[in-house]
C-alpha cells in the first residue's frame, strides 16, 4: 500500500432489497424514506422485485431509478396471484407466502454473488427513520431488525414484528413452566413495555425490516421452507434456520419505523416524518405515543367486556381482575362473596358492549391516562330481558414493570347520575351515588369525656375555622367538657348529647351512637376527630378543594403521636405516621355500612368504607394524647384495665408506653 493510501478504510457495500407489490400512495412513502436515509461512509445499491399490479406503482419504481445516484436493479415479475388487504387485516395464502420467500432468496443470492457486506431487507409498506441504516450497521450484529408497531387487526393493540418463541409468542416461559393467566399477562406486558425503551434486545423471531451480515448470508441463512415445521410465514422459517446455524437474533428500538398496514395508517405518516425531522422529540417517544392510546383502548375494551359481562352458571368473581390496580383488587376481594351471591341468586346473564370510547393522554407525563366509555348491558335476570346504558370514567396508571392498570372507576347511569360502587352487582342495582362537587357541608363529629383541662379547647378552636357544623357525644363527663364545646363551637354546634352513664368500656356502642346522631343532621362530609387531634394549619386552605369534588368518597391522613409539643415518637411499636387512616368521608345514603363489632379499637368509622373510592392526603395530624407523662400513665392504666391481654390492641405497645428513653423525632413544619 502506498503512503497516500495509509489509513484508507473501504466503504461498506450495502444492498437494500425489497419484494414489492404495493399501492402507489404507500409505496411513495417507502421510497421517499429510502431516499432520505443517511448513508455516511457506505455504498448503497438497490434490488427491487417489481411484483406490482398497479401501473402507477411500477412508474414510481422507474422514477426512483431514474433520479437515484445509486445502482438500482428492478426485476419485473408478473403479478398473477392476489391477496386480500382491507382495513381490518391482510390475508395471505400459502402460495403467495412462498413466492415472496423465493423473491427474498433471489435477493440473497445476488447479494452473496456480488460480495456485499450487508443486506437490508425491507417490506415496501415501511417508512424508515433517516438514521436507521447507519445505526443498525453500527450495532455490529449479524442479524438485527428495526422495530415497528402494528395493529394486526383493527380492534387489537399495537404489537411489534418480533417475538420470542414459536409462531408469535411474546411470553418468556420455560418448557415445563405453567403460568396463571395473571402471570401470563404480566410477562407479556413486560416484554411489550421493554421494547418501548430504546436499546438492543435478543429475540426469537423477526422480519420485515432486517439487516443481515455477509457472515450470516454465507453461512446459509435464507427463506426456504423447512418441511417439518408447520409455522406459518417465511419469517418464522428464516428465524429458526438462523438460530440453528448459530446466530442470535436482535431487535433495535432506537429508531422505530412506521408501518402503513392499512390505508388509514397513511394519516400518521406526516406526523411521523415531522417528528423524525424535528429532532426535538426522540422517535422512541413517538413510538410510545402512538402505542399508548391503542394499548389503553385494548385494555379498556377488554375490561368492560370481561368485568361487566356475566353468566351466573360459571361466574368466578375474578373476571377482569388482571386489568385492575392492587387497591381495586383488594376492594373486590372484600366483596367477592357478596357479588357472586347477588349474581347467582338473580341468575344473571348479561353482556357488555362498548358504544363509544375516548382516550385522553394529556396527563401521560404523570403516567396517568383517562378514558371515557359509553356502553350497554344486555341482561337476562330472573327470566327478564332488558338493555341498559351506562357511561364510565376510568383512570389508568402506569405501575411497576410498566403495567397499565385501572386505578379509578366512576359509573353513571343513562341520566348521567353517578352510581354507587363499581362492580357488576353495583351496576345492576344502580343505586345512585352522591357526587356533589360544590357547596358541600363539612360536619365534625367527636366523642368526648372529661376533656375540659386537656386539648379540647385547642382542637375545637382550630376546627371551628374550617367546619360548618359539629355533632358531639359526651360520654358522661364529670367536668365542664360540655360547656367548653358550647362556648367555642357556638352556633356551629348542631347537636350535643350527654350520656347519663359512661360506656367507655364499650367503644363500639359509643361510635355507633355518635354515627347515628350525625346522620340525623343530613351531612355531606363527616370529619371524625378525637378531642386530642389537630390538623396542621394548611387544612384550612385546602379543605374546600378536598370536599367539593365528585371523584372520591373518603380521605386518609397520617397521624403523628406527639410525645411533647415539639417531638413525636417513632420506633417499632410507634409508627402510626407511616400509615394513612381515614378521618374524612362523604356520606353515601345508599351505601350499606358495616362496623367492626369490638368493644375496644373498633375504629371511628364503619369498617367497609374502603370499598368506596378514596384518596390519600399529605396534610398531617398531630395526636396529643401521649404528649405528657400524666396522660401516658392514665392511658397505660386504662388499657391494662380494659384490655389486659392485648386482645383488641397490641400488648407489646402497651408495655412501651412508659419507656424512659423513647426514640423521638422533632416535628418540622412543611
TrEMBL record:
InterPro entries: Glyco_trans_2-like, Nucleotide-diphossugar_trans
Keywords: Transferase
Protein's UniProt keywords contain Amino-acid biosynthesis: no
Signal peptide bounds: none
Matching Pfam families: Anp1, Glycos_transf_2
Stretches assigned to the Glycosyltransferase 2-like domain: 446-558
An example Gene Ontology molecular-function term: transferase activity
Superkingdom, taxonomy of origin: Bacteria
Protein name: Predicted glycosyltransferases
Organism: Maledivibacter halophilus
Amino acid at each position: 500500500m502506498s503512503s497516500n493510501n495509509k489509513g484508507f478504510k473501504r466503504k461498506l457495500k450495502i444492498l437494500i432489497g425489497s419484494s414489492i407489490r404495493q399501492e402507489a400512495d404507500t409505496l411513495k412513502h417507502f421510497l421517499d424514506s429510502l431516499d432520505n436515509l443517511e448513508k455516511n461512509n457506505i455504498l448503497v445499491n438497490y434490488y427491487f422485485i417489481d411484483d406490482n399490479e398497479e401501473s402507477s406503482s411500477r412508474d414510481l419504481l422507474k422514477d426512483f431509478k431514474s433520479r437515484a445516484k445509486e445502482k438500482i436493479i428492478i426485476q419485473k415479475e408478473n403479478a398473477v396471484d392476489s391477496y386480500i388487504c382491507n382495513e381490518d387485516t391482510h390475508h395471505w395464502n400459502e402460495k403467495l407466502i412462498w413466492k415472496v420467500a423465493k423473491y427474498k432468496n433471489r435477493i440473497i443470492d445476488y447479494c452473496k454473488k456480488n460480495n456485499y457486506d450487508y443486506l437490508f431487507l425491507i417490506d415496501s409498506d415501511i417508512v424508515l427513520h433517516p438514521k436507521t441504516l447507519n445505526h443498525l450497521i453500527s450495532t455490529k450484529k449479524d442479524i438485527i431488525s428495526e422495530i415497528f408497531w402494528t395493529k394486526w387487526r383493527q380492534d387489537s393493540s399495537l404489537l411489534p414484528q418480533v417475538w420470542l418463541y414459536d409462531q408469535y409468542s411474546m411470553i418468556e416461559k420455560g418448557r415445563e413452566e405453567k403460568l396463571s393467566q395473571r402471570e401470563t399477562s404480566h410477562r407479556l406486558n413486560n416484554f411489550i413495555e421493554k421494547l418501548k425503551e430504546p436499546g438492543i434486545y435478543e429475540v426469537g423471531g423477526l422480519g420485515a425490516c432486517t439487516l443481515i451480515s455477509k457472515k450470516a448470508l454465507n453461512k446459509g441463512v435464507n427463506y426456504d421452507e423447512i418441511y417439518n415445521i408447520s409455522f406459518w410465514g417465511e419469517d418464522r422459517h428464516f428465524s429458526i434456520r438462523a438460530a440453528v446455524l448459530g446466530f442470535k437474533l436482535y431487535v433495535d428500538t432506537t429508531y422505530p419505523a412506521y408501518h402503513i398496514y392499512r390505508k388509514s395508517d397513511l394519516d400518521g405518516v406526516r406526523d411521523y416524518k415531522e417528528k423524525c425531522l424535528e429532532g426535538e422529540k426522540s422517535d422512541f417517544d413517538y413510538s410510545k405515543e402512538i402505542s399508548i392510546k391503542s394499548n389503553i383502548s385494548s385494555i379498556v375494551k377488554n375490561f368492560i367486556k370481561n368485568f361487566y359481562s356475566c353468566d351466573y352458571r360459571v361466574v368466578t368473581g375474578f373476571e377482569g381482575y388482571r386489568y385492575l390496580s392492587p387497591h381495586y383488587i383488594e376492594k373486590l376481594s372484600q366483596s367477592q362473596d357478596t357479588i357472586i351471591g347477588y349474581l347467582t341468586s338473580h341468575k344473571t346473564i348479561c353482556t357488555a358492549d362498548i358504544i363509544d370510547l375516548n382516550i385522553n393522554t394529556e396527563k401521560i407525563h404523570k403516567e396517568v391516562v383517562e378514558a371515557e366509555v359509553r356502553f350497554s348491558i344486555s341482561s337476562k335476570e330472573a327470566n327478564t330481558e332488558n338493555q341498559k346504558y351506562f357511561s364510565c370514567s376510568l383512570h389508568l396508571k402506569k405501575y411497576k414493570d410498566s403495567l397499565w392498570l385501572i386505578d379509578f372507576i366512576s359509573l353513571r347511569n343513562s341520566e348521567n347520575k353517578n352510581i354507587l360502587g363499581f362492580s357488576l352487582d353495583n351496576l345492576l342495582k344502580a343505586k345512585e351515588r352522591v357526587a356533589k362537587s360544590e357547596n358541600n357541608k363539612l360536619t365534625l363529629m367527636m366523642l368526648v369525656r372529661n376533656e375540659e383541662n386537656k386539648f379540647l379547647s385547642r382542637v375545637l378552636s382550630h376546627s371551628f375555622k374550617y367546619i360548618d357544623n359539629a355533632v358531639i357525644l359526651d360520654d358522661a363527663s364529670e367536668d365542664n367538657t360540655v360547656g367548653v364545646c358550647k362556648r367555642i363551637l357556638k352556633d356551629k354546634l348542631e347537636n350535643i348529647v350527654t350520656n347519663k352513664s359512661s360506656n367507655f368500656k364499650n367503644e363500639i356502642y359509643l361510635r355507633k351512637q355518635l354515627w347515628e346522631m350525625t346522620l340525623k343532621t343530613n351531612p355531606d362530609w363527616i370529619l371524625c376527630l378525637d378531642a386530642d387531634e389537630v390538623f396542621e394549619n394548611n387544612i384550612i386552605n385546602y379543605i374546600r378543594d378536598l370536599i367539593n369534588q365528585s371523584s372520591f368518597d373518603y380521605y386518609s391522613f397520617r397521624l403523628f403521636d406527639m410525645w411533647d409539643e415539639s417531638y413525636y415518637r417513632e420506633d417499632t411499636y410507634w409508627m402510626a405516621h407511616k400509615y394513612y387512616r381515614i378521618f374524612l368521608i362523604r356520606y353515601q345514603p345508599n351505601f350499606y355500612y358495616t362496623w367492626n363489632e369490638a368493644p375496644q379499637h373498633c375504629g371511628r368509622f364503619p369498617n367497609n368504607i374502603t370499598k368506596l373510592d378514596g384518596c390519600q392526603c399529605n396534610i398531617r395530624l398531630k395526636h396529643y394524647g401521649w404528649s405528657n407523662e400524666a396522660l401516658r400513665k392514665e392511658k397505660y392504666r386504662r388499657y391494662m384495665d380494659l384490655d389486659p391481654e392485648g386482645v383488641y390492641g397490641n400488648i407489646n405497645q402497651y408495655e412501651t408506653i412508659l419507656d424512659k428513653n423513647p426514640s423521638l423525632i422533632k416535628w418540622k413544619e412543611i
